[in-house]
Fold this sequence. Notes:
The mean pLDDT is 94. This protein has a domain at 24-103 and 137-188: Alpha-Beta Complex (Adenylosuccinate Synthetase, Chain A, domain 3). It has helices spanning 7-14, 47-55, 74-84, 126-129, 157-170, and strands at residues 25-29, 32-34, 68-70, 72-73, 88-92, 102-113, 116-120, 133-140, 174-178, 186-188. By secondary structure, it is α/β, with parallel strands linked by helices. It is 24% helix and 27% strand. It is globular. It has a four-stranded mixed β-sheet with strand order 1-5-9-10, with helices on one face. The two termini are 34 Å apart.
Amino acid sequence: TSSSPTSGGACVGAGIPPSRIEQVMGVVKAYSTSVGQGPMPTELFDEVGIMLCDNGAEFGATTGRRRRCGWFDAISVKYANDINGFTKLAVTKLDVLTGMPTLKLCVGYEIDTPQGTKVVDTVPPSCYMESARPVYEELPGWDDDITEVKTYEDLPVNAKAYLSRIQELVGVKAELISVGPRRDQTIMAN
């Protein structure tokens, strides 16, 4: 994109001062996706990556090109929060994870430095990103169909645990959760 897709960039694009912004909602998927080139430490090249792409309809609207898919990358989302100052999160496409026995969250990157291999919990300098390896935390999945769930309380226990861990890792409360593409499939969390 030629614009600056940050909360600060919105001020420039809209012609308003930063002091007028009262809330910044970070919109993230329940898993990670990317289009084009560049490092994506959590990218999956296996059947799970294909399943995320197919079940999540992860194809470019204009080109039809398959998006790169992987596990939720809490490190990159935490970095986005640092830059944008999120006051709340919207977690979309939670339903795509239904039926997976185990879910993974990237909680760090293993990088090779001149001083040796180390694990970092922040986005490292760009020279290390291409070879960064994800460090995962695993959580149990759920089998219940959540596409018609209307309240946060009615989500399966494991879905709530997954969302809770995302909030802890990113440091921001999820106030919107989507369990499908329709408007009435958006849950307002308290």
